[in-house]
Amino acid sequence: MNNPIIIAIDAMGGDDSPNKVIEGISIHSKSSSNVNYKVFGNLNLVKPLINKYKLPRERVNLIHADKVVEGKDSALSAAKKGKQTSLWLAVESLKNDEAHAIVSAGNTGALFLISKLNLKMIENIDKPALSALWPSKKGMNVVLDLGANIECNKKNLIDFSIMGSALHKALFPLERPKVALLNIGSEELKGNTMIKETYQLLIDKKYSLFDFNGYIEGNDIMEGNVNVIIADGFTGNIALKTAEGTSNFIISELKKALSVSIIGKFSSMLNYYNLKKFKNKLDPRLYNGAILLGLNKPVIKSHGSTDSIGFANSLKVCEKTIKGKLINQIQENIN
Question: What angle do CA 134, 136, 140 make, to 5 degrees?
Fold first, then answer.
């Protein structure tokens, strides 16, 4: 058997931690036999959960951490708490090559700052980008940047195209990455100067890693005609929050409509299978796991409010990025 993948995990970050984290590890471990877990947290809280969820002890390495980065901490105050927080120790283990990647459901700003303090940027990349998976009619989209950089230049957007394509290839090796720039229209003359200049550069230079498909509008993101969507962090974050809010609205309204009357309840029983497929398609837990691209090691951010199923899926994303040699693919294609 090959040497196991080792994932460093901040057990104390996010809602209902460390319970959801340890249960999430348990769920993931059942489908991933060659992955071990380096878990950082308060052992007085973590150890009983290891027994409760019957994790195989030979696959779990527990490291005690006295301090915790709280959700209310600013990124700077979290870093100033010192090197004994579960988050800092987990990132440091990645820096020291004691793990292949890190996953945390904790404070987003703190995770990014502590990662950038400990890890190096990939050569020739100026800014990291936050990327995540979105469902589409034809599969999955990789979308970036989702808020790491409010302002970007054309080089940043081209770097994002390469990094996003490398991520898509790592996660879905049988698919060809197809890149589009998120814009206010699909016509060549639409958009601001930076978008138009980036468009022209991507048209002029043919990249072996991906095909460039021009512009995409917000209402076409879910069509699936492209699978890597590029934006600056301001635009991408608004698009993300709009999509999340719309998804939650549809699910809640559908539940309400199917539960307020006898006819609705009867209809939901008759259509149980189709409704379940619909719900799963929009269930954010199944796409949990944002990736901070641009650093020389994989850093995965699980949503803070997700449950154990969502956390398990972030571990699955993490595992795929390592097996798909994400960092190597970025390094080979970046200029």
Answer: 55
